[in-house]
Design goal:
With 249 residues, the protein is an alpha/beta fold. Helices cover 26% and strands 27% of the residues. The longest helix is centred in the N-terminal third of the chain and has 15 residues, at 37-51. The structure holds adenosine monophosphate. The site of adenosine monophosphate has 22 residues, from α1, β4, α3, β6 and α4.
C-alpha cells in the first residue's frame, strides 16, 4: 500500500501575525515558516502505518514556491520515503491544489491520500473534500483514529456531537485532526539522511493546471484591540458590575 501525504508550508503557529500597513495582506517577510500542524499528524500516521508493516511507501507532496521544498524535506526527516514539489508562485487556492493533487494521484496511483483537516493560514477546510470529489473517492475527514483493514479503513471522526466511526473503502482520502497522534521530532541523523532522499520537482503549468487565484482579497484588518481589564475588590463588587455594567447576569 502506498500513501501520499499533502504537506503545506504556512506561517508557524507561534508567530504573532501582523497586518501590512496598507491592508493588502499580512507580513510574510522574515517570518518563521513551518509545516501546517495537522499535516504533521498526517505524515506521522502514514509513517506509523508503514512501520506497522501495512504500507510500503510514504510519499510527501507540497504545492508552492521553491521554499516549500523545506516542508517536504522535513516530512522526509520524520520518515517519508520520497518527496514531490509542485512549483507554483503566489497563493494557490484549494481548488487548484486539489486539481494538482488529482494529477499526481493519477500518476502515482496511491491507495490512500492523507492530508490535514485544515490549513491554518487560509482556514479553508476544502482541499481534501474537493480532491475526493474530483477523484470520486470516499473521504473520511477530521480523523482522530485510523484502523487499517484488509481493503478498507475504519476511521473515527471528531464531529460536533462527539466521535463518529465510519468505514471507507480504499482508495480513500483522509483528512487528519490534531488529536490523531503525537508527531515525532526529526532526529539529527534522520535530518542528515533526509538530505539524500529524492524530491521530484514539477511545474504546476506542466501539469496543465492554471493556479491563478479566483478570489480577490479586498482588505485585511487587525481584529479590534481588547479593552484593558479591571480589578475588583470583592465578589459583591464583581456581581454588581456583571449585573449593572456588563448586564450579563
Ligand atoms: P485547506 O483546504 O486549505 O484548509 O487545506 C487542507 C489540507 O490540504 C492541508 O492541511 C494540506 O494537507 C492540504 N493542502 C492545502 N494546500 C496545500 C499545498 N499548497 N500543498 C500541499 N498540501 C496542501
Amino acid at each position: 500500500m502506498k500513501i501520499l501525504v499533502a504537506v503545506k508550508r504556512v506561517i508557524d503557529y507561534n508567530v504573532q501575525i501582523r497586518v501590512k500597513e496598507d491592508g493588502t495582506g499580512i507580513v510574510t517577510e522574515n517570518v518563521k515558516m513551518s509545516t501546517n500542524p495537522p499535516d504533521d499528524n498526517a505524515i506521522e500516521e502514514a509513517v506509523k502505518i508503514k512501520e506497522a508493516g501495512k504500507a510500503t511507501e510514504v510519499v510527501a507532496i507540497s504545492v508552492g514556491e521553491e521554499k516549500a521544498q523545506e516542508t517536504v524535506r522535513k516530512a522526509l526527516a520524520v520518515g517519508a520515503d520520497r518527496g514531490i514539489l509542485v512549483k507554483a508562485e503566489g497563493t494557490v487556492e484549494p481548488l487548484a491544489v486539489s486539481k494538482i493533487l488529482q494529477k499526481i494521484v493519477e500518476k502515482e496511483k496511491p491507495d490512500l491520500v492523507f492530508m490535514g483537516k485544515q490549513a491554518i493560514d487560509d482556514d479553508c477546510n476544502q482541499t481534501g473534500q474537493m480532491l475526493a470529489a474530483l477523484l470520486n473517492w470516499p473521504q473520511a475527514t477530521f480523523a482522530s483514529k485510523i484502523d487499517v483493514k484488509e481493503k478498507s479503513l475504519e476511521v473515527t471522526r471528531e464531529v460536533d456531537e462527539g466521535l463518529e466511526t465510519i468505514e471507507v473503502n480504499v482508495p480513500a482520502i483522509v483528512t487528519c485532526d490534531l488529536r490523531l497522534n503525537e508527531p515525532r521530532y526529526a532526529s539529527l541523523p534522520n535530518i542528515m539522511k533526509a538530505k539524500k532522499k529524492p524530491i521530484e520537482q514539477i511545474n504546476a503549468s506542466d501539469l496543465g493546471i492554471d493556479t491563478k487565484p479566483r478570489i480577490d482579497q479586498i482588505k485585511v484588518e487587525e481584529p479590534p484591540k481588547r479593552k484593558a481589564g479591571i480589578k475588583v475588590a470583592s465578589v459583591e463588587e464583581l456581581v454588581q458590575k456583571l449585573k449593572n455594567e456588563a448586564k450579563v447576569i
